[in-house]
């Protein structure tokens, strides 16, 4: 590859975004590519599983130290040579959480990090609960050419994805990044795939891959590793490699068609009704209708 492929991966907190990003980075490196992962979450834990569970100093923490900054202070090597960077966030209660992304990207450019390391792929792991301020930088500034979102059939994950689509649509006419697909995570039941497939249909988006929930992920992360490192021969590791190959071969870039709030609510309630009917047919109804959450329940 001659020019780095810049990919932003969004997703609500707790959806498995960083797990997916780090395993994707490890899988891409396993395919022989030079990969850089930039954690854009104030928690600064995006790259932990690429570093044996060890955290690295963030760009903002390093800047706050006041010392002269060298590239080695902010770029660390992880599993299989993956280059790891954490943008970081402000001190608690002070400043904008998204500011770390802006500052980190500016500093990496000033230090000619991308020219020095010449990565084939740069993964931006971005918190997707909100798409505003610094968190929208990879989209609105065209830092990333492609945007993916990690989502499940849970309503709040879908809600966050729908908001992301609104952000992409907003900046699309001003050189912003375009969308390339949904990475459907924690997909273990057919009905969950049906829900996410229908959401993609309604929003005129595509599915980049399905990743089931697996204990291999839990075991690997308890050791501070990716599945690619801890269980390289496992079925789950091969799924991440398939996702990596799919993303490498995916040239789709388009503007999604997000649902307006009322339509999203109606859509979610329709799936809640479907789930309820399936439970009734199985004789497993244990709650009243008012106690069942839209979309996110398991059957």
Automatic annotation (TrEMBL):
EC number(s) given by UniProt: 1.18.6.1
Catalytic activity: N2 + 8 reduced [2Fe-2S]-[ferredoxin] + 16 ATP + 16 H2O = H2 + 8 oxidized [2Fe-2S]-[ferredoxin] + 2 NH4(+) + 16 ADP + 16 phosphate + 6 H(+)
PROSITE patterns given in the database record: NIFH_FRXC_1, NIFH_FRXC_2, NIFH_FRXC_3
Coiled-coil residue windows: none
Chain positions found as ADP-ribosylarginine: 99
Domain of life: Archaea
Cofactor info, note text: Binds 1 [4Fe-4S] cluster per dimer.
Ligand binding ([4Fe-4S] cluster): 96, 132
The UniProt record lists the keyword Cell membrane: no
Task performed by this protein: The key enzymatic reactions in nitrogen fixation are catalyzed by the nitrogenase complex, which has 2 components: the iron protein and the molybdenum-iron protein.
Protein name as catalogued: Nitrogenase iron protein
The species this protein was found in: Methanosarcina thermophila
């Amino acid at each position: 590859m001659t020019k780095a492929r810049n990919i932003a991966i969004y997703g609500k907190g707790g959806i498995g975004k960083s797990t997916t990003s780090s395993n994707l980075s490890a899988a891409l490196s396993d395919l022989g590519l030079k990969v850089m992962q930039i954690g854009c979450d104030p928690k600064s834990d995006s790259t932990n599983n690429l570093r044996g569970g060890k955290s690295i100093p963030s760009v903002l923490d390093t800047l706050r130290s006041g010392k002269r900054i060298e590239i080695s202070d902010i770029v660390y090597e992880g599993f299989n040579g993956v280059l790891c960077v954490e943008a970081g966030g402000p001190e608690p209660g002070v400043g904008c959480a998204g500011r770390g992304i802006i500052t980190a990207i500016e500093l990496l450019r000033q230090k000619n990090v991308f020219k020095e390391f010449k990565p084939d792929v740069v993964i931006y792991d971005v918190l997707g609960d909100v798409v505003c301020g610094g968190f929208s930088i990879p989209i609105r500034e065209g830092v990333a050419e492609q945007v993916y979102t990690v989502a499940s059939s849970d309503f709040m994950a879908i809600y966050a994805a729908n908001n992301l689509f609104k952000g992409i649509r907003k900046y699309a006419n001003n050189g912003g990044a375009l969308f390339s697909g949904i990475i459907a995570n924690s997909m273990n039941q057919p009905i969950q795939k049906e829900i996410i497939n229908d959401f993609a249909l309604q929003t005129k988006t595509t599915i980049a891959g399905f990743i089931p929930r697996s204990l291999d992920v839990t075991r690997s992360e308890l050791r501070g590793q990716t599945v690619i490192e801890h269980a390289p021969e496992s079925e789950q590791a091969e799924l991440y490699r398939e996702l990596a190959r799919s993303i490498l071969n995916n040239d789709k870039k388009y503007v999604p068609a997000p649902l307006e709030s009322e339509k999203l609510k109606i859509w979610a309630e329709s799936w809640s009704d479907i789930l309820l009917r399936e439970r009734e047919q199985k004789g497993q109804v244990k709650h009243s209708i008012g106690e069942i959450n839209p979309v996110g329940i398991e059957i």
